[in-house]
């Protein structure tokens, strides 16, 4: 960019030429500079930018586009730049727009012409696409590790709570007794699928755009396979236009992140409910809660509430990125600079949230007697009575009706099914015998469901151990 004013010429052709150069005849305003710059947020990709540049330089030297000396100078310069960045001494300039130009400018300052040759056969368009992929691949690997830890913590607590019984709900009404271990393992399943989704997304993130240059490739004899190998990419992007323009890999990540947060949010909702004094199923460690400035008795579950709230932002980032992409013609457009802040925000939120939850789960204090008391209300074993009648020969629909009548009776009498005498039960169906009381207990109910996917303590122990083994 040049800020000099060229005097207007009388010559028609000169005027034409000037019409073009006039775009550069005045300085960009401070506001426009700030508006168009990305360095304030893309500088966090600096390490990956340098990693990509070093691989590019190695390849350029290998194919003879730059000399071995140039390559050595570039490596030396980048080493110093890395040190300056890590020491917080690197001067990031808004005038230099983004992370790429800031680093390149400093490299030229340090090593001269070799620094100017680095950008041969490359554009910021394929450079930025490479940086994002390297950065995101690293974030995915961190998230995968955290999701494994989440599953282990849930499974460890499930092992401890394999025998603890609480009501299982449908429509937020007591439905059937379940074990708390089983309930926790439901979330372990969700986080397992989240990890599968991220691992699958990683395959498409892990492809090399570099070599696409601005959009059309380059006339230099580059070796893209070599660069891919140096950067541990599994594959090379096969179309230069696509390589610089699509951000579907980031959208996939944002979708996977939104699902992780959605699962976290559902879990949070339960933690908040369970911790409410009205329910009193659990207590969270003090370090995840805060007090009230006015009500001294309060201990609020701030962390799960905030996680539930942050889910909105992460969901929003997905929609923002989809919307960013939908109107763009091929190939690169500056719109794409807007891909980063939402993506960074989603990854930061996932990382912080999972890290906190791994710790918080381990510190859940379970109030087993409150859970049990709640399971004893609401005729949680009514289905077991119906199943019992079916085993005695009744068709299920008839058994369902018979039990409905018994429940109605108990509701009027203000008692539980298990409180009825054998004679009273036999009044509803003559096939009922003394072994019914085994069936009507909470323990009998859960123990009977020992098949794969069932809530029985025996099954919970098997599944929890399997999850621990798989993720340790
Ligand atoms: N900062 C830009 C981005 O994030 C880098 C690519 C700029 N390319 C260009 N032709 N202006 O997308």
From TrEMBL:
PROSITE patterns: FUMARATE_LYASES (PS00163). Keywords: Amino-acid biosynthesis, Arginine biosynthesis, Cytoplasm, Lyase. It is an enzyme of class 4 (lyase). Its EC number is 4.3.2.1. One of its GO terms (molecular function) is argininosuccinate lyase activity. It catalyses: 2-(N(omega)-L-arginino)succinate = fumarate + L-arginine. CDD domains: Argininosuccinate_lyase. Pathway: Amino-acid biosynthesis; L-arginine biosynthesis; L-arginine from L-ornithine and carbamoyl phosphate: step 3/3. InterPro entries: Arg_succ_lyase_C, Argininosuccinate_lyase, Fumarase/histidase_N, Fumarate_lyase_CS, Fumarate_lyase_fam, Fumarate_lyase_N, L-Aspartase-like. It holds the Pfam family ASL_C2. Residues 23-316 form the Fumarate lyase N-terminal domain. Residues 379-447 form the Argininosuccinate lyase C-terminal domain. It is found in: Cytoplasm. PANTHER family: ARGININOSUCCINATE LYASE. NCBIfam families: argH. Belongs to the lyase 1 family. Argininosuccinate lyase subfamily. This is Argininosuccinate lyase. It comes from Alcaligenes endophyticus.
